[in-house]
Specification:
Number of helices: 2
Order of helices and strands: EHHEEEE
Largest sheet: 5 strands, mixed
Helix content: 10-25%
Strand content: 15-25%
Number of strands: 5
Shape: globular
Structural class: alpha+beta
Radius of gyration: 14 Å
């Protein structure tokens, strides 16, 4: 099955330059068209002065965000649940299953 891990710069400069807004628009347009099937998994790792991991476990009703501030000695806090089934999540803000609904405002704030 296809697996996609998106590593996204969410720093102040990424927001101010417009990069993050453009990335979000393009990702939204291509999200459902990415190759794969019902087993396809996705994951997101965001970074600024910290690393931000999304727990996309099937056991959670909503994604959980975990941040690691020690970037000199980083670790992945949930290695088994960084990827989740693509069909469970939406990238549209108005949808109930919007993947970033529980994110801090600094991430994906436009």
């Amino acid at each position: 099955a296809a697996q996609y891990l998106f590593i996204i710069d969410v720093s102040y400069n990424a927001v101010q330059s417009g990069y993050l807004e453009i990335l979000a628009e393009e990702l939204l347009q291509e999200y459902q068209n990415m190759p794969g099937d019902r087993r396809t998994k996705i994951g997101f790792l965001c970074y600024d002065s910290s690393l931000h991991f999304f727990n996309l476990s099937d056991e959670l009703a909503q994604p959980q965000l975990l941040s690691v501030s020690d970037i000199d000695d980083p670790f992945e806090p949930m290695p088994d649940s960084i990827l989740g089934k693509r069909e469970r999540f939406s990238l549209r803000k108005r949808d109930d299953n919007y993947i970033f609904s529980k994110s801090p405002r600094i991430i994906f704030s436009n």
